[in-house]
Every structure is written in structure tokens, then in C-alpha cells.
Specification:
Elements (H helix, E strand, L loop, with lengths): L1 H15 L1 H13 L40 H27 L3 H23 L17 H14 L3 H23 L5 H25 L2
């Protein structure tokens, strides 16, 4: 459970203060998107909305072969599912409150991201912690607390909601980078690579809205 504890700490740090995750944002954006074959590439489609509104490349179909996952990597995969659900549920709620297309567009992207992670969970026989969970509800107490805190933060005004989105994407980037370390399973590498690129684009979209 050490990995899940680290994940909760990363997420919590992103909520406490913008300065806490600014360094992670810099790390995530320092490396340009990969080109050519490799994790995060393959057939892609472009969902509605341009870059300013959170549009990004969809996760490609999972056609790579399976590999072997350690127990830590299996735990991280389940944690990534909860992170994707948190992002989806939070942005969906903000989309109801604010007439800002970035929330609606990124929430749609998070739907495809969660389905990709769920496909991997099924492949590797890992229990899906997001199964049968209602919107805004999570199996892991730390994730539930994170969602509740971010939802309350975003209820203040639109900019506060955009800052909450930045915190989520920064935490996602940190989690995905950690999850990719030592990973050898081709199918999981590809999905994580795609999710990392998507989170970088989402973060950039929130930054553009905040600097408008």
C-alpha cells in the first residue's frame, strides 16, 4: 500500500498550494510529446473543442500485448482508475456550474481515459475500485477526501474551479510519471503514455483560461 500512500500524498500536495505543484508542472512540460512509435502513440481521433477548450488526442485502441506487472504496478493501475474518475466527476460538476467549455470537453476526454484504464484492469484481473461507484463517490477514503476538498474549492468561483483543475492534472502527471518508472508491459506503457500527453494538454488548457 506504499504506492497508494504516495499517490494520496501527491494529490493532497496539489490541493494545499499552487506552489506545491508548480515544480511538477514544470517537470511535466519540460519533455515534449513523444513522436514515432512508442507509448502514447497509435491510431488517434480528436474530440470536440480546440486546445484552448481542452481538446486533446484520444487514447488509442489497446492493441499492444500484455506483459507482467508487479504488485506495486497493479496497485498503481487501480489508483490511476480512481484518479481518472475523480477528474471526470469533478469536471462534470464544474461544467454544470460554469459556462466554461473547457470543463465539458475535458470531462468527455476523461471518460475515454477511464475506459482505457478499466480495460487494462480487466486484462490483468485487477479489481476495479471505480466499479459501481456513483458520481463523486470513491472507494478509497483519501481519494474521496481529495474530491470533496477540490469540489468545495471550485464552488467559490470559476477561477477557483480552474485552479482545482490545474491541481488535478498536475497530480495526474506526477502519478503517471511515477507509474511509468520500471514498467515493461507494452499495453500499460502505451496507455500511460497517452494519458500523460493528455494531462499535459489539459493542464495547458487550464493555464490558458486562467491567463485570459
Amino acid at each position: 500500500m506504499k504506492t497508494r500512500t504516495r499517490i494520496a500524498a501527491i494529490t493532497a500536495a496539489g490541493i494545499v498550494a499552487a506552489g506545491a505543484f508548480a515544480g511538477t508542472v514544470a517537470l511535466a512540460t519540460a519533455s515534449p510529446p513523444m513522436s514515432g512509435p512508442g507509448p502514447g502513440h497509435g491510431p488517434v481521433t480528436t474530440p470536440r473543442g480546440g486546445p484552448r477548450d481542452g481538446g486533446c488526442l484520444a487514447v488509442p485502441g489497446i492493441t499492444d500485448p500484455s506483459g507482467t506487472l508487479t504488485e506495486v504496478q497493479r496497485t498503481a493501475l487501480a489508483a490511476n482508475a480512481e484518479e481518472e474518475k475523480l477528474a471526470h466527476d469533478l469536471y462534470t460538476e464544474f461544467a454544470r456550474r460554469y459556462d466554461t467549455p473547457v470543463f465539458d470537453h475535458i470531462a468527455a476526454s476523461e471518460t475515454t481515459h477511464l475506459e482505457a484504464v478499466r480495460t487494462l484492469l480487466s486484462r490483468y484481473g485487477i479489481t476495479d475500485p471505480t466499479a459501481n461507484q456513483a458520481p463523486g463517490k470513491f472507494a478509497t477514503p483519501a481519494v474521496q477526501a481529495t474530491y470533496d476538498r477540490l469540489l468545495a474549492q471550485g464552488a467559490a468561483n470559476q477561477d477557483a474551479a480552474l485552479e482545482a483543475g490545474r491541481a488535478v492534472e498536475t497530480a495526474d502527471i506526477a502519478l503517471l510519471r511515477e507509474s511509468l518508472g520500471g514498467l515493461t508491459a507494452p499495453d500499460v506503457q502505451r496507455v500511460y503514455g497517452s494519458l500523460l500527453t493528455a494531462s499535459q494538454r489539459h493542464l495547458a488548457a487550464f493555464d490558458r483560461w486562467l491567463s485570459r
